[in-house]
Amino acid sequence: MSDTTHGPDRKERNAWFEADARLKRRHLADKRLRAYGIAAIVFALGMLATLVGTILITAAPAVTQTMVTFEVEVPEGSVDPANPSGGSYQTMLNASIARIFPDVDTPRELRELRQLFSNGGQYQLRDKILADPSLIGKTVSISFPMSDIGDQLHKGVIDRNLPPDFRRVNDTQIAWYDVLVERGQISSPLNWGLLFNADSRFPELAGLRGALVGSFFALLVCFLVSFPVGIAAAVYLEEFAPKNRLTDLIEVNINNLAAVPSIVFGLLGLAVFLNFFGMPRSAPIVGGLVLSLMTLPTIIIATRAALKAVPPSIREAAIGVGASKMQTVGHHVLPLAMPGILTGTIIGLAQALGETAPLLLIGMNAFITAAPDSMFNPSTALPTQIYIWADSPERGFTSRTSAAIIVLLGFLVCMNAIAIYMRKRFERRW
Amino acid sequence: MSAGHEAKISAAGVSVFYGEKQALFDVSIDIPARQVMAFIGPSGCGKSTFLRCINRMNDTIDICRVTGTIAIDGADIYDPKIDPVLLRARVGMVFQKPNPFPKSIYDNIAYGPRIHGVAKAGSQMDEIVETSLRRAGLWNEVKDRLREPGTGLSGGQQQRLCIARAIAVNPDVILMDEPCSALDPIATAKVEELIDELRERYTIVIVTHSMQQAARVSQKAAFFHLGNLIEVDDTERMFTNPRDQRTQDYITGRFG
Amino acid sequence: MSATSLLAIVLILSLIGYFWGRASAAGLKRGGQGMHSIPAYHGYFIALSCGIPSFLLVLIWLATQNTVIDTLLIAGLPAHITDGVETSRMSLILSEIKSIAGGRIFGTPDPALIAAAERYNALRGTASLAMVVSALAVAIAAMSYARSRVSPEFRARNSVDGILRWILIVCSILAILTTLGIILSLVIESMAFFSRVPVFEFLFGMEWSPQIAMRADQVASSGAFGAVPVFWGTIFISAIAMFVALPVGLFSAIYLVEYADKRVRSFVKPLLEILAGIPTIVYGFFAILTVAPFIRDLGTSMGLSVASNSALAAGGVMGIMLIPFISSFADDAISAVPQSMRDGAYALGATKAETVRQVLLPAALPGIVGGVLLAVSRAIGETMIVVMAAGLMAKLTANPLEGVTTVTVQIVTLLIGDTEFDSPKTLAAFGLGLVLFITTLALNIVALQVVKRYRERYE
């Protein structure tokens, strides 16, 4: 730029010279802004990667569940065939554990030994006998989860090389565990319990069934209410409403409702649905109703956009052949807008599925060990279950929380993928 | 570089591609200093494309590629050592639609001098603003409202403001891309008058649709057709006695 | 009979009404009558006339039934139980009666309660029978009335259109009802709260310790409800969040719009938007799992004491959540600045950075400000991140390494678990909710106005 062979005019040459230092500074500022932009994007995407990465890594141990298999003798007379559920199954289980470790006899040692196994074993044994009472008097093989510490020992989460004071299992427990491994009694199959068990205080037994069913019911209610009502409201506002103060008010209202914090909807649900109408606490129906009020603005806004995209010529054509306004909308406009409406609805439902705060306020964070039978039974939902588990002190819940988050994110990814697919597939340019 | 004595800008073998599509074919032209050169031709003929090559505005379009050389005062402006930022300070541009920044009239004019460090704020800047507005013939209309937004002016005033904005950085060349197409006849007349005055100091290249305008303001004219430069001549001679049949057809209104 | 099966029966009745109406109209038509509307519309008319009133009746009945029964039950209780009992105790008595009625008896209840339980069961039986009878009666009466209107002149199509139009109107009014419901429930509960704790003390008091008010016999049972530390915590954490989100969001938007080529943009933009789709509970877990320990370790290694629930961790993670919010608003606003502005600046020899800083950003400012206001409103109302990662103790501190609490955290902790509806503790949550609602509403209205004005400017 400081090329002296440029034009003959002195003034110009000076301009080329003088600008030099200053110009460098200006270009440096330009490069700086570009660098800030790249840094910002790298930061944001790095955080996304860290978030997904740490969740995946912490969830990894929850993919399998360490199980232990025992041959349990069910002596004749230990279970009353008339009332098999009254048997003392824990004693039978303890006996078979003791048979493997005959030299363990002090109560303290016995207790430490039993700490390795989930106390869910006895119920599994009971269920087996209940299903087939002819097993009484025989030897039954059952396979049940190891306890939280046993599980983590197996997965290497607990480092056995640490000094004993720094780990939650002592040397004898490790020795027992090694014996079981040697005898081939330890296995680690895929952790289906995570999806198909209901909640439990013990991480090794806790699963998402209740939460999945609860979320399903809540979303069902949410869909059944917000979909028809949202479409109806949008159709009225877009196709029928006169321009007046009332419709202006409704419009402003909907835009503002979309930005009201979700917890305020929780307060509404608590005060109106639970307190005023006396609806059942913790029930998916209430959760679904609250979520539907939150989803409604999303659906209305999406539906209006979809209706707007239908060209007026379609309406004119229908009215031209003598259809009423209602018929025009019902037969022509609405079906053409439907892909857009459904896309918006799915995105709204995906938001509702991840929503936590309002569900906490209406009590859907209760500790419930059975999946709800109907939408009126107390239940948790997927996000509130994550909240409960995240709040639990047991180490085993950390990986289960992450695993539950992955389940939740999996659902969200699927829903959004469907929405994107529909938008791509049915998008129509007029 | 073959810098003719009086040629301010000389282009040789300039071709422009938008992606796969070629928009300009091998254009070579010398543009004399301190005169008005009009580019005429039917729409889509490449005259605006060529104009935007002269201050490298095409650089801001990702898919655009330019080959050939354009030299100003003998220096190739597509030389990698040339900084488009400095180039544009020497080659000002006025667009089809007036595009004042949403700032005050004063700041619109002062923007260029400020970024190029020609003047700091204060009396020196006030002077530049006044001179530029005077040269653009706008001073008397706006001197009492320099702090009001430039977007509040009428269309013709806005366009003269844009011209003043271009003058303020003291360029050698001013490119005008159909500067009057968005203006009414009275505003157009004012801008044309201004162009005629400006030629004393600046080399002006104007793209125009209107034959009359080309005839009124330009001394030289270049006729473009389908991306090719057909003919360059004195405006008067071209309009009375064109050499090429296509020029003749266009001037007499057979197409365009 | 359960309400669900009752609604199913109403639905079936409506279907019957549809076919009945269609058949009778078709009969008239076959008889050579010139009908105004086609038979199907007569069918729709009967179906709607039959279904809607009884459907509404069932809904209203279900909504009010429990309250009515409770009132009747309390009115019927003998004096020795009801005398001098507060409302909170009353609800305990009611739930005891209900559990006795459900067959879950603990200990030996008062015989009066057993009698009440029997009465409760009887009332419920009567109520549900009455509901079934009246709903069916309404359905059938409406159906026969509607049938009687089927005639060649009857404008069934217009009537059906009219009914549908009313349904549409009612649905759109639901949006207003929701807002009204929010305002009413917040205001009513807050009034109850402010009758115990003066508004002035709530808004300007410097001490917040509502948990003390849990049991009436405790010392200092009144608790302290000065919400300033809670407000401060909310503002503080939101400010930290904006401190992260604003530069990152703005710079990425500038880069994506002005610098990045198309390929990068089409790849990075959706990735950024993923951040907006992640549920806040996931961010909350991320904060306690990764960010808070990281900040604590980092602080400890520099010899600082960092709380495990530091405002920095909660605010920082919230900031990450808000990045796509800011960036997409800024992106829209910068993209909306006409190309001619860029051309104007480039033609004067401005660099990209100068064009952005001095032309595009000032022109896009209103749009960006609107987005920032909406993001602030989000930050203030955000719940799960702070519930999991911020503190419970209300503290007036400007040290981001200490824990502070927020309005939403307090609402959740005050209301979680079993709640009685008239202790100041639970009512305080509604007071906070009212403040939260008003603040976010004001921010939203201003933001939407700013954005709208801005759009008008370039359209």
Account of the 3D structure:
The complex is a heterotrimer of chains A (430), B (256) and C (459). Chain A has helices at 10-59, 89-100, 107-114, 121-131, 148-155, 171-182, 193-196, 209-240, 245-257, 262-276, 284-309, 312-320, 325-354, 357-361, 382-391, 396-426; strands spanning 67-73, 139-145, 186-187. With 430 residues, chain A is mainly alpha-helical. Chain A folds into three domains: 2-61; 64-190, no CATH class; 209-426, MetI-like fold (Orthogonal Bundle), CATH 1.10.3720.10. Chain A has a three-stranded antiparallel beta sheet, with helices on one face. In chain A, helix 1 (10-59) crosses helix 16, helix 8 (209-240) packs antiparallel against helix 13 and helix 15 runs antiparallel to helix 16. The longest helix of chain A is centred in the N-terminal third of the chain and has 50 residues, at 10-59. Chain A is globular. The model of chain A is unreliable at 1-18 (pLDDT under 50). Chain B has ten helices and ten strands. Chain B has helices at 47-54, 84-90, 105-116, 123-135, 139-142, 155-168, 185-198, 211-217, 235-240, 245-251; strands spanning 7-18, 21-32, 36-40, 64-72, 75-76, 91-94, 173-177, 203-207, 220-225, 228-234. The longest helix of chain B is centred in the middle third of the chain and has 14 residues, at 155-168. In chain B, 36% of the residues lie in helices and 26% in strands. Chain B has 256 residues and is of the alpha/beta class. Chain C has 459 residues and is mainly alpha-helical.
What layout of secondary structure does this protein have?
The complex is a heterotrimer of chains A (430), B (256) and C (459).
Chain A: H1 10-59, E1 67-73, H2 89-100, H3 107-114, H4 121-131, E2 139-145, H5 148-155, H6 171-182, E3 186-187, H7 193-196, H8 209-240, H9 245-257, H10 262-276, H11 284-309, H12 312-320, H13 325-354, H14 357-361, H15 382-391, H16 396-426
Antiparallel strand pairs in A: 1-2, 1-3
Helix pairs in contact in A: 1-16, 8-11, 8-13, 8-15, 10-11, 11-13, 12-13, 13-16, 15-16
Chain B: E1 7-18, E2 21-32, E3 36-40, H1 47-54, E4 64-72, E5 75-76, H2 84-90, E6 91-94, H3 105-116, H4 123-135, H5 139-142, H6 155-168, E7 173-177, H7 185-198, E8 203-207, H8 211-217, E9 220-225, E10 228-234, H9 235-240, H10 245-251
Parallel strand pairs in B: 3-8, 3-9, 6-7, 7-8
Antiparallel strand pairs in B: 1-2, 1-4, 4-5, 9-10
Chain C: H1 3-30, H2 39-75, H3 79-82, H4 87-101, H5 111-148, H6 156-194, H7 199-204, E1 208-209, E2 224-225, H8 228-259, H9 262-277, H10 280-301, H11 311-336, H12 339-347, H13 352-381, H14 384-389, H15 407-415, H16 424-458
Antiparallel strand pairs in C: 1-2
Helix pairs in contact in C: 1-2, 1-5, 2-5, 2-6, 4-5, 6-16, 8-11, 8-13, 9-11, 10-11, 11-13, 12-13, 13-16, 15-16
